[in-house]
Amino acid sequence: MRMTKKRLWLTAAGALIGLLVLWTLYVQWMIFSAQHNQSAERADAAIVLGAALWNDAPSPGLRERLEGAIQLYEQGTVGAILVSGGLGDNGSTLTEAEGMKRYLLERGIPETDIWTETEARNTLQNLQYSLLIMESNGWKHAIIVTHHYHGARALDMAGFLDFDKPRVYTVDSKVMNIPWHKARETLAYGKWTLQKWLMKLGLSAAS
């Protein structure tokens, strides 16, 4: 018996929903794995991925990332902190990196141990441009500092960019809507995965 058009559409819709559910579970498992597989092995630097400034100062969420980097520095796990982020579109007059550097100086981190990357506009650029600074300093290993929900995608990007044994240090948040960010990350990870394969096939440039 031939499948009716309506039944065909229902089958296709069911298959699509099933794939979306599987993808969501996969991404959430990757987030969980990145969060719970972290090493205390020493690295040359911590790379803090940028986020919004509020009135030219780090937002509460960005301060959480910075505090994570400060903890690594004070423990002696890293010898330097590299802050990465360009000029946002929310009226800030400082780049994210400059705002983060000010915060670190106020928290007592020596200026000689703070490096800034001021051009990046997204996570991939954060890592691309930070890798250039690492190479210019002869640094081999870095720990990428971000929030739990963001760690898996950042780690995958670092691997794609040929970081040497990339690692993440992810922080929890008391100020962000984490369920919303985790749901959004499902879409962001999908977008990144598509972009990654297009770049591998030479159909897209890194941006």
Q: What does this molecule look like?
A:
With 207 residues, the chain is α/β, with parallel strands linked by helices. Helix content is 53%, strand content 16%. It has helices at residues 5-36, 60-74, 96-106, 123-137, 148-160, 178-200; strands at 43-49, 53-54, 57-58, 78-84, 114-117, 142-147, 167-171. Strand 4 (78-84), helix 3 and strand 5 form a beta-alpha-beta unit. The longest helix is centred in the first third of the chain and has 32 residues, at 5-36. 35% of the residues are buried.
Low-confidence stretches: none
Number of E-type strands? 7
Please state the average pLDDT score. 93
Using only CA atoms, what is the Rg?
Answer: 19 Å
Notable traits:
207 residues; alpha/beta; five-stranded parallel β-sheet; 6 helices; elongated
How is the secondary structure organized here?
Layout: H1 5-36, E1 43-49, E2 53-54, E3 57-58, H2 60-74, E4 78-84, H3 96-106, E5 114-117, H4 123-137, E6 142-147, H5 148-160, E7 167-171, H6 178-200
Can you give me a brief rundown of this structure?
By secondary structure, the chain is α/β, with parallel strands linked by helices. The chain is 53% helix and 16% strand. The model has no long low-confidence stretch (mean pLDDT 93).
